[in-house]
Write a structure and sequence with these properties.
The chain is an alpha+beta fold and 671 residues long. It folds into four domains: 173 residues, Protein-Tyrosine Phosphatase, Chain A, CATH 3.90.190; 222 residues, D-amino Acid Aminotransferase, Chain A, domain 1; 86 residues, Beta Barrel (OB fold (Dihydrolipoamide Acetyltransferase, E2P)), CATH 2.40.50; 35 residues. The protein is globular.
């Protein structure tokens, strides 16, 4: 029986990965036999067909040239002051190159200066440091940024894209701020050959700075300045998927350039690759990874959404949020001492219940979701969690009055909202995320946090929600597919206090997500950052809770519940915590956990972990919750109080006015 027949029989029942491994081993054995046969025939020991000559000692650490680099054109034309280029090689490579084939930092600078361009920033996308020393640039006063990206079978990850776009935007912003008069400065962007990774990053930049209207246009713009452009199909496909744009069918990509096609085959006519080239990776490992990709995890409120952004970008956005809600930035601040500025409600008790007699209040349900503020910028949308960390998500928020049929509308820039993320369980059993917006503090860099809540709440619909829904209905999946976004967005409803009974008994039971009480919002209040004594929350008695940090003694059996007090952890004396049977308590050490209180047993009952929080509740928050628990305002008490409050002139006059305004608005819509 021949080798091939034996291999075929052995391959029965193998996976595709195992078959490819077996075939590879078979090829190696055949090559070895052929070499041995050749040696026996000629009496000479021959080198493998594709073995390169050994370099001289002084080049031992240089390594081979990147495959295809020699004949790859040096640089393309600028696009928005970005120059795509292949990697300039350090002077140590000169011994391997003819004088006419060299392309180093000196060649780049000399060529760009000859056409009146000065390089101010270099962004290196290669996944290696062997090509040149970055000091070659920095010693010449050029800023150098390394954004290491693997190539070939992997597109740059979203965090690397965020870093690239931020570095370019910051560079040009600094030039503008300094009113730089030293000449028109450019950014040199390179990977190994200056096509796929470089083009991918530049198209992302064009999309996020509104220098192109679509992925198709961005890809075409890059191909024009750096022919043939991006020639690997999965890079282009990823761009369409990332920006939720419908992909052309069929998607036609440029052919691989002649200079990139491998010319050196092995004995089985299989093209070889340079094992040291930074954008090459083991194909078998990639295939193995693809076949063993784990199933998607169930959707939970604890999931981390979006992609991380650079720390420097986060600091700038933190300052912007402080300004938008009227919180001064402390002198000499750092990321560690800037806290989440979002408005926080306090628990309802007998004392603050009297506020409802002094101000006009509306009510909404208290969703049991995850708190996020949201910053909408031209270059992306950013979720802001309770730890004041920002992560980018891909959503669209078109401007009011700008929606059209043939092109995507311009989007909001520097709009700040407040809300909560919930997970709806749909009738068919599927889970869907939804962001409920309940406040608006800044619209297109104009702060509105001092306006009454009722005006800000109405602006959510007019400025944010309606244009978005209008574009969704107009486009119907053309140009942009809203259905591909990670979550939907809607305004959270508020009602008069007279509707609270319906909220509790009809609305909440029909919700697709969990709810644990009511939020009472002063309808004329400004946005109050951090603790807002006039923003009240009422929870079902068994749902009143406090977020503690759990400390476990070295012996593993004694638990302590910690709160924040004046910036330090404070132990809650004589506190007892009860965990459900089988709970992995040790894994909760030094983590924030949510607990409800049992007044009869005087114990705190574990409810869940809070991975969205790094610090426990403040001690004064604990006191408020305990006051609410002791007051024990029941639903019956609440409804009785509301009935009395609604008879006050403050409410009767406002209700009549609001009803009249709603009637006029309804008539206007009918016309």
């Amino acid at each position: 029986m021949g080798d091939r027949a034996a291999t075929a029989m052995a391959n029965d029942g193998m996976s595709s990965v195992e078959m490819m491994k077996a075939e590879r081993e078979e090829r190696k054995l055949r090559m070895k036999r052929q070499r041995e046969s050749e040696q026996e025939r000629t009496g000479k020991v021959s080198k493998p067909f594709n073995e390169p000559p050994k370099p001289v000692d002084r080049l031992r650490n240089v390594g081979p040239l990147p495959e295809g680099w020699l004949d790859c054109p040096g640089a393309g034309d600028p696009i928005c002051n970005l120059i795509p280029s292949k990697v300039p090689l350090g002077e140590t490579f000169n011994e391997l190159l003819d004088a006419g084939k060299r392309y180093s930092r000196r060649h780049v600078v000399r060529h760009q200066q000859a056409v009146g361009r000065k390089i101010g920033l270099v962004i290196d996308l290669t996944n290696t440091s062997r090509y040149y020393n970055s000091s070659e640039w920095t010693n010449d006063g050029v800023k150098y940024v390394k954004v290491a990206c693997r190539g070939r079978n992997e597109v740059p990850d979203p965090e690397s894209v965020n870093t690239f776009v931020f570095e370019v935007m910051r560079f040009f912003s600094n030039l503008h701020a300094k009113n730089d008069t030293t000449g028109n400065k450019f950014v040199l962007v390179h990977c190994t050959h200056g096509h796929n990774r470089t083009g991918f990053m530049i198209v992302h930049y064009l999309m996020r700075t509104n220098n192109c209207r679509s992925v198709e246009e961005g890809v075409r713009m890059f191909a024009k300045v750096r022919p043939p452009g991006i020639y690997k199909q999965h890079y282009i496909e990823d761009l369409y998927k990332f920006y939720h744009e419908p992909m052309p069918q069929p998607l036609v990509c440029p052919s691989t350039p002649e200079w990139k096609r491998p010319e050196t085959p092995d004995l089985n006519c299989v093209a070889t690759t340079d094992p040291d080239e930074d954008d090459e990776e083991d194909f078998m490992a990639a295939l193995q990874f693809t076949e063993e990709k784990p199933a998607a995890a169930p959707m939970t409120n604890d999931d981390v959404l979006g992609d991380a952004i650079p720390d420097d970008q986060q600091r700038e956005m933190q300052k912007l949020c402080y300004w938008a809600v009227g919180v001064p930035v402390p002198q000499g601040y750092g990321m560690s001492n800037l806290r989440f500025p979002g408005s926080q409600p306090v628990s309802l008790d007998r004392k603050n219940l009297q506020l409802l007699r002094q101000k006009y209040y509306y009510a909404t349900w208290k969703a049991d979701g995850t708190r996020y503020m949201m910053l909408i910028a031209r270059d992306g949308v950013y979720l802001i969690d309770r730890n004041f960390r920002f992560r980018r998500v891909q959503l669209r928020f078109p401007l009011k009055g700008q929606v059209g049929k043939d092109a995507l509308a311009p989007t909001h820039h520097l709009t700040l909202m407040d809300g909560e993320m919930v997970i709806d369980k749909l009738p068919d059993g599927q889970l869907k995320r939804r962001y409920l917006v309940y406040d608006l503090m800044m619209v297109n860099h104009q702060t509105i946090s001092k306006l009454p809540f009722n005006e800000r709440w109405r602006m959510i619909e007019k400025e944010v929600n309606e244009p978005r829904l209008h574009e969704l209905n107009v486009l119907r999946g053309r140009l942009y597919d809203y259905q591909q976004e990670a979550f939907s967005v809607r305004r959270k409803d508020f009602w008069m206090l007279s509707a609270t009974e319906k909220i509790l008994h009809k609305f909440i039971p029909q919700l697709c997500h969990e709810a644990d009480g009511l939020i009472l919002q002063g309808f004329d209040d400004p946005y109050v950052p951090r603790t807002h004594e006039g923003l009240l929350k009422w929870k079902y008695a068994h749902m009143n809770s406090v977020d503690f940090m759990l400390k476990i003694a070295p012996n593993g059996s004694n638990y302590s519940l910690m709160l924040m007090d004046s910036g330090k952890l404070r132990q809650l004396d004589h506190a007892k915590v009860v965990f459900p049977e089988g709970a992995d308590v040790q894994s909760m050490a030094n983590k924030v956990i949510e607990c409800s209180y049992d007044p009869e047993l005087e114990t705190w009952n574990y409810m869940r972990m809070r991975p969205d929080k790094e610090t426990p509740n403040a001690y004064h928050v604990y006191l408020k919750v305990m006051g609410s628990i002791k007051d024990n305002i029941t639903e019956e008490d609440l409804q009785k109080e509301f009935q009395e409050i609604l008879k006050l002139p403050l409410y009767t006059h406002r209700i009549a006015r609001d009803n009249q305004a709603a009637h006029h608005a309804q008539q206007a819509r009918r016309k």
